[in-house]
């Protein structure tokens, strides 16, 4: 049984989520329902929950600020939010689960199932730091790390060490400058959405490359790129011109 706390300043949202959990997630026991961050902090310290459903956009103290006030975060965090792409991208960087309001029942059941199967939650504080760093990007520049879900758990990976990513079915293999490859439990499309603003480019259905590690472009129908580790990858014909344009931005032709 998963003991859960719901934190949301909107009564309609709290009531709707509570009803859906009670109707469709029999393994969830709701131990507290809170209307603001301060109530949430008190409830978490009192009940020591397994899972917290946390609204992001709350007055006075939003969900991220509330989490920063907690010295220990030994629970799964499920963020709930009205559609906010920027906040969602930050959540993805930290490899947290989230639900978009109004909460879809099937998505709710799926996220509860993932929490139940994980049984433990790794690197929560570090992942939260990654998330918060991403939210500060307009002032701080590109994100520094990404939390990568694997079969063993989570790995915190410096983005600058990723040379390229390779699609393997519904999984993705990350290739690095030094460490051995890492198989991640996400599709290449999910990584593309996450990393396209961090200097990565989808050159082919099977490949996403870090442009700073491209050593050479080899002419052809679509052509190929040679990376600094001497790996050569095909470029899809439809991506050729855009790729060349992106390469010119980081290394102007002379």
Query: End-to-end distance, in Å?
Result: 64 Å
Largest sheet report = 5 strands, parallel
Order of helices and strands: EHEHEHEHEHHHEEEEEHEEEEEH
Q: Tell me the number of helical segments per DSSP (H or I, 4 or more residues long).
A: 9
Q: Name the shape in a single word.
A: elongated
Detail the poorly predicted runs.
Answer: none
How many whole angstroms does the radius of gyration measure?
Answer: 21 Å
How many β-strands, per DSSP? 15
Q: Strand sequence of the main sheet, in spatial order?
A: 2-1-3-4-5
Task: Describe the 3D structure.
The chain has 254 residues and is an alpha/beta fold. The protein has 9 helices and 15 strands. The strands form 4 sheets. It has a 5-stranded parallel beta sheet, sandwiched between helices. A 5-stranded antiparallel beta sheet has the order 10-9-8-12-11, sandwiched between helices. The radius of gyration is 21 Å and the shape is elongated. The mean pLDDT is 88.
Give the topology, please:
Blueprint: E1 2-7, H1 11-24, E2 28-34, H2 37-47, E3 51-55, H3 63-68, E4 76-81, H4 85-93, E5 97-100, H5 105-118, H6 124-135, H7 137-140, E6 145-149, E7 154-158, E8 162-168, E9 171-176, E10 182-184, H8 188-195, E11 200-204, E12 207-210, E13 214-218, E14 224-227, E15 232-234, H9 240-250
Parallel strand pairs: 1-2, 1-3, 3-4, 4-5
Antiparallel strand pairs: 6-7, 8-9, 8-12, 9-10, 11-12, 13-14, 14-15
Helix pairs in contact: 4-6
């Amino acid at each position: 049984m998963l003991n859960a706390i719901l934190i949301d300043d909107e009564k309609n949202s709290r009531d709707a989520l509570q009803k859906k959990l009670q109707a469709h997630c029999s393994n969830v026991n709701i131990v507290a329902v809170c209307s603001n961050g301060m109530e949430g902090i008190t409830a978490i310290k009192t009940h020591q929950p397994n899972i917290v459903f946390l609204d992001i956009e709350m007055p006075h103290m939003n969900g991220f600020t509330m989490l920063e006030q907690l010295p220990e975060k030994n629970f799964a965090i499920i963020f709930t939010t009205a559609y906010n792409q920027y906040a969602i991208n930050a959540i993805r960087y930290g490899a947290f689960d989230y639900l978009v309001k109004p909460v879809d029942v099937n998505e709710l059941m799926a996220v509860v199932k993932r929490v139940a199967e994980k049984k433990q939650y790794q690197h929560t504080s570090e992942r939260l730091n990654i998330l918060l760093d991403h939210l500060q990007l307009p002032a701080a520049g590109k994100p520094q790390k990404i939390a990568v879900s694997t079969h063993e758990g989570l790995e915190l990976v410096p983005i600058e060490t990723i040379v390229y990513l390779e699609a393997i079915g519904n999984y993705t293999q990350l290739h690095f400058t030094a460490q051995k490859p890492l198989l991640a439990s996400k599709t290449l499309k999910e990584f593309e959405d996450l990393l396209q603003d961090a200097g990565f480019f989808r050159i082919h259905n099977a490949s996403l490359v870090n442009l700073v590690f491209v050593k050479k472009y080899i002419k052809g129908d679509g052509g190929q790129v040679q990376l600094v580790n001497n790996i050569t990858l095909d470029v899809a014909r439809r991506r050729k011109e855009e790729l060349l344009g992106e390469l010119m931005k980081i290394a102007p032709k002379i």
